[in-house]
Amino acid sequence: MTREWQYQVRLDLGEALAEAARRDPANPALRPLMEVLARHKARLVCQYDAFAEYVAEAEKNGPENFPLYRWTKLTIDDPDKMKKYLGSFVIHVAGHEVYGRAAADALEAELLPLVDDHAVTRVYKQDTNPANTVPVPAHLR
User: Fold this and answer.
1) Contacts of 12 (CB under 8 A, 6+ apart)
2) C-alpha span between 118 and 70 (Å, rounded)
């Protein structure tokens, strides 16, 4: 039996556009991107913001109950990683963090033409296959 993996489309934005996406999604510079997302009932989630929310939730409810707390906390506290993740976004479709291949392929196909050197700098798909995921080092769990 073949397992069907779920997917998530991710993208990186240049610094100015990333800040707009986080703070002012109605910014006219984001219009082409937001139009694609609207067609797919999708929304952007900044990875740095998601990590910060995870850390805040862990600190509120006890980090021992959050297996990735240490790694995530170290990540958001590192200035180089902070800069990287402030420009990195995941795309949720219809309220789902991961979704089927057909939805991911269609979304990716519409986003790829937006890639340039300073606005949308990269678009890619990540699947849920554990073999394709970089594991968190044991000492950071």
Assistant:
1) 87, 88, 89, 120, 121, 122
2) 32
Q: What is the pLDDT of residues 59-102, one digit of tens each?
A: 999 999 998 999 999 999 999 999 999 999 999 999 999 999 99
* Cβ count within 10 A of residue 51: 20
Q: Could you tell me which residues come within 8 angstroms of residue 58 by beta carbon, excluding any fewer than 6 positions away?
A: 65, 66, 69, 72, 73
Strand partners, 13: 120
Q: What is the pTM of this model?
A: 0.90
**Tokens standing for 112?**
């790829």
The answer to whether residue 135 scores a pLDDT higher than 90 is no
How is residue 47 written in tokens?
A: 């990875």
The residues, ordered by sequence, that sit 6+ positions from 82 with a Cβ below 8 Å of its Cβ are 48, 75, 76
Report the C-alpha gap between 88 and 57 in whole angstroms: 21
Report the pLDDT averaged over residues 36-44: 97
Residue 25 token pair: 């999604």
Would you say 18 and 82 are in contact if contact means Cβ atoms under 8 Å apart? no
